Amino acid sequence: MDDFLTARETQDLLKVDRTTIYRMLKDGRLAGVKIGQQWRFSQADVEALLSGKDEDDDALPTSLTTILPLHCIQAMQNVFAEVAQVGSVTTTPNGKPLTKISNSCRFCNLILASQSGRRACVASWQKLAEQPEQHPRFVTCHAGLQYARARIEVGKASNPMFIAGQFYLTPPDPDEQAARIRQLATLHGLDQPALADAAAALLVLDERKQAQIGKWLETVAHTFEQIAHERAELMGRLRRIAAISDLEAE
Questions:
Q1: What single string gives the DSSP state of each residue in the chain?
Q2: Which tens digit of pLDDT belongs to each residue from 1-26?
Q3: May I ask the CATH class of domain 62-233?
Q4: Reported confidence tier of residue 87, pLDDT bands at 50, 70, 90
Q5: How far apart are CA 112 and CA 35, in angstroms?
Q6: Taking Cα atoms as reference points, which of 111, 109, 86, 219 lies closest to residue 165?
Q7: pTM (two decimals)
Q8: Which CATH class is domain 4-57?
């Protein structure tokens, strides 16, 4: 079973201050789970960071982080997730998070706290990018939950995604759910009773809410597109001004 470290223990191992720990948690470099009022961090993830072997710690594409103001995207994503009462995240086309997951449920937090579980989630998000459909369509992730995505068209062949998920469309079969929880606990070194308890609180969306989620996803994704295009235009103007200033200085 995966062991968990306190924030202080994680600080001591990584030799960073508390602010850096929470910054790493926010930008996705470090996965954690909140137990009560305290954060706990996967010891396997921390050791992977120390060894430099964490496959999920690649630098995010500069082009995306430049034209998408992530602090603004994060704030809007947080509001969407709270209003829709679902989990939400913005990712690169290969499923790597650009933002911290908003309104993440306890069930998914337990899985995400495991390094292998987080990789399985990223792989599920990546599959959303492979969908040929333009509009959102619900699919089942590795943990048996439903997700949908809307593409954020920023003028590139591969575009980031705005994703909503962590829910069921219909109540799960109790036997199938129990078997899935046993499998997830074994595969990712998780506490099976804790996972089962968290699964009992998972949301089941009615048909009305399902239809709303798809529409809301596209609306928010289009808003992100507008922000990206306006930011790109502003940066272009600033570069032209800088170029003119350099010429005048010569």
A1: ---EEEHHHHHHHHT--HHHHHHHHHHTSS-EEEETTEEEEEHHHHHHHHHT--GGGPPPPHHHHHHS-HHHHHHHHHHHHHHHTSEEEEE-TTS-BSSPPBS--HHHHHHHTSHHHHHHHHHHHHHHHT---SS---EE-TTS-EEEEEE---SSSS--EEEEEEEESSPPPHHHHHHHHHHHHHHHT--HHHHHHHHTT-EE--HHHHHHHHHHHHHHHHHHHHHHHHHHHHHHHHHHHHHHHHHHH-
A2: 446 788 888 888 888 888 888 777 76
A3: alpha beta
A4: very high
A5: 14
A6: 86
A7: 0.71
A8: mainly alpha
> Token pair for residue 44?
């396997």
Domain spans of the chain, in order of start: 4-57, 62-233
Q: Are 202 and 167 in contact (CB under 8 A)?
A: yes
Instruction: Give the Å distances, CA to CA, from 213 to 129, 130, 186.
Output: 18, 20, 32
* Rounded (10°) CA dihedral 181, 43, 113, 123: -90
Q: Token pair of 29, please? A: 């470099």
